[in-house]
Amino acid sequence: MKVLVILGHPDPGGSFNRAIAETACRTLEALGHEPVLRDLYAEKFDPVMPLGEEKLPIEELPAPVRNEIRLVREAGGFVFVHPNWWGTPPAILKGWIDRVFRAGFAYSFSPDGVISNFTDKAVQVFTTSNTPRDVELEVYHDPLENFWKTIVFGLVGSKTFGRRNFESVIMSSPDERAQWLAEAEALVKERFA
Question: For 182-187, which contacts have Cβ atoms below 8 Å and span 24 or more sequence positions?
């Protein structure tokens, strides 16, 4: 199956986020899947939704957004990779969610409530941060877990969901990062076996 690997980090080659995304792509290929890397910064995805776009039918959306919707439609799953910036994904990734996971496509409304349209898709989220884990949990209450698991995929659905945060990247050693990449590989294997 096709799996979208969506990278939201501005460093084109040297970031740990890039290493995670590349590990995910290699692992998916080894499992027989077709990874489709979407490097949002390299592609210069415009995260700003113009006035009125949320009301347009899909066929009238700008070509780049229609292309992302097509890729999402074709995908059997997603791997998201991004840093924790102020408790949220970077704006480029949040804008991608706003413009692509739109009402009428990713979810819709009925008299009985919300209809989730991605219940057949597997999801693995990898995030990185410099905040120690105990502070992330006790002080900030892990806002990225809430964002991805409850807000995004609680609404649009998924057949399986997992998230792993790697921290503290700034204080980590090359050996620790190598262990984290091995863990990322194992999680992708588990999620997309």
Answer: 184/20, 184/23, 184/24, 184/27, 184/126, 185/23, 185/24, 185/26, 185/27, 187/124, 187/126, 187/162
Task: Record the tokens describing residue 110, joined without a space.
Answer: 């009925």
CA-to-CA distance for 176 and 96, rounded, in angstroms? 31
Q: How confident is the model at residue 112 (pLDDT cuts 50, 70, 90)?
A: very high
Domain ranges of the chain: 2-192
For 36-62, how does the pLDDT look when each residue is reduced to its tens digit (9 = 90+)? Answer: 999 999 999 999 999 999 999 999 999
**CATH number, domain 2-192, options 3.40.50.360, 3.40.120.10, 1.10.287.130, 3.50.30.50:** 3.40.50.360
Task: Give the integer Cα–Cα distance in Å for 69 and 110.
Answer: 22
Tokens of 73: 């439609």
